[in-house]
Amino acid sequence: MTALTIKLNASPEDHRIARMAALAIGLTLMEAALPSPLPGVKPGLANIVTLLVLKQHGMRTAAWVSALRVIAGSLLLGSFLTPGFFLSAAGAITSLAVLWLAQHLPEHLFGAVSLSVLAAFAHIAGQMAIVYFWLIPTAGVLYLTPVFAAAALVFGLVNGLVAAHLLATPVPVTISRETA
After folding, report:
1. Average pLDDT in the 108-116 region?
2. Best CA proximity match to 95, nearest among 133, 128, 72, 138
3. H/E segment holding residue 92
C-alpha cells in the first residue's frame, strides 16, 4: 500500500495572512469573553487587524484575514452556521465592500479613523439587514438602529484611533530562527 503525499508550498503572503488571521481570531475569542451591555454590541477589536492589513497589504489580504476570522472564530466558538455566524459574515462582507469602495477616496480625507467608522456603520447595516429580512422580519427591529449606530460610531472611532496609532508607530521586528 502506498501513502499519499501532498506537498504544499506556502508563500510569504500565505504566512502573513495566517499570522494576521491568527491575531484577529485571538481578538475575536477574547472579545467573546467580554460581557455585552446589549446583545450584539461588541467593540469589534478584530476589525483593527483588518484595517491594518488593508492599509499595509491591500484589500485581497484584508478579505482573506476577515474571512478566516469569521469562519475559524465561529468554529472555535461553536457558532458555525448559526444565526450568529450569518450576522458576523454579513457584517464582515458589508464592511469589506464599503472599505473597498472607500479605499479609492482621497487618502488625506479618509485615513484609518474615517475608514473604521465607515466600516463599523456598514457592519451594523449588514447585521441589521440579516435581522430584519431573515430573523425578525418586523419594523420594530428598526427602533434599535440608533442604539447600534451610536455603538458603531463609538467603537469605530476607538478602533480607528488604535489602528491609526499602530500605523504611525514603527515597530522594530527581529526574527530569529533556531535550528536544531
Report:
1. 88
2. 128
3. helix 83-102
